[in-house]
Design goal:
The protein is built from eleven helices and ten strands. It has helices at about 10-20, 30-35, 35-45, 50-55, 60-70, 80-90, 110-125, 140-150, 155-160, 165-170, 220-230, and strands at about 100-105, 130-140, 150, 170-175, 175-180, 190, 205-210, 235-240, 255, 260-265.
């Protein structure tokens, strides 16, 4: 555990939020102490003002702190109901002849959500994996390295994949299991800060934005969803987390009448 003086903890929280959107309060000191101990000790910091100063001027320290504080909790087929509904949702997309449907997984962490999207569609059979261009986006380079490796431990595989899915979609490898072909080579993994916008990504047909907005204040949540809505292809849809208040985005997206926490461009805004 690190032993930073409380002096300046509010300053550090504000600097952190301004940089990457993570909204922590002084009550999270226990989390800072647990996750930043090694960085604080190595840099000789004695207060949160020191930490804020290093964070602001040292790119390497800023990256280390963000990596330490970002939560990369995820697992295969998390909240499985949406994956049961996904094939029908994808079948309702507007036609894009000759082009794959672009799928964003925002806050993709170590990749299990994006693999689950591909696996669910493969199980259904109506949409082949090559008909999708899946893109995972996360602020954590460490988590993205895991996603790119497509290698998961026994424990990670057991969280969401039964034996039948494991046999079909994975292959044994040193250290655990690796996603098999043809799925492994399909995704593109992108390091990005949602606070900075998503303008460099191709226009999406499907956007998964689950279990990531919960770390942001409402104004930033709305800014992110406004960016998503402005980029969303006609007929496309956005999947939000089960804990999100959809009323916060009611002027930007309309709830899908058939599937909970799925939203689309309102009819009044469609071209």
């Amino acid at each position: 555990m690190c032993a930073l003086r409380d002096t300046g903890i509010e300053v550090f929280c504000k600097v952190l939020e301004a940089s990457c959107g993570l909204a922590y309060s002084a009550e999270k000191a226990y989390l800072f102490e647990a996750r930043l101990a090694e960085i604080v000790s190595r840099q000789g910091m004695t207060s949160y003002l020191d930490l804020a100063e290093h964070f602001g001027r040292d790119v390497a320290v800023r990256r280390e702190v963000i990596e330490a504080l970002v939560t990369s909790e995820t697992y295969f087929f998390r909240d499985e109901g949406i994956f049961h509904a996904l094939p029908d949702l994808v079948s309702r997309l507007g036609p894009t002849p000759g082009a794959p449907a672009v799928v964003w997984s925002l806050g993709c962490a170590t990749g299990q959500e994006l693999w689950s999207i591909l696996f669910a569609l493969a199980e259904d059979g109506r949409v082949p994996p090559t008909a999708l261009w899946p893109i995972g986006v996360d602020i954590s380079t460490r988590a993205l390295a895991r996603a790119r490796s497509a290698v998961y431990s026994d424990f990670e595989v057991q969280r969401g994949l039964d034996e039948a899915r494991r046999r079909r979609f994975l292959e044994p490898t040193d250290g655990g299991w690796r996603v098999a072909q043809p799925w492994r080579e399909l995704p593109r993994w992108v390091q990005g800060n949602l606070r900075d916008g998503l303008g460099e990504l191709p226009r999406p047909d499907v956007v998964f934005c689950r279990n990531v907005l919960i770390y942001f204040e409402d104004d930033l949540k709305r800014a992110i969803i406004r960016c998503v809505a402005d980029r969303l292809a006609p007929g496309g849809f956005v999947v939000l987390g089960n804990t999100e208040n959809l009323l916060l985005f009611a002027d930007l997206l309309a709830p899908d009448p058939e599937v909970s926490h799925v939203m689309r461009i309102p009819a009044s805004r469609r071209a």
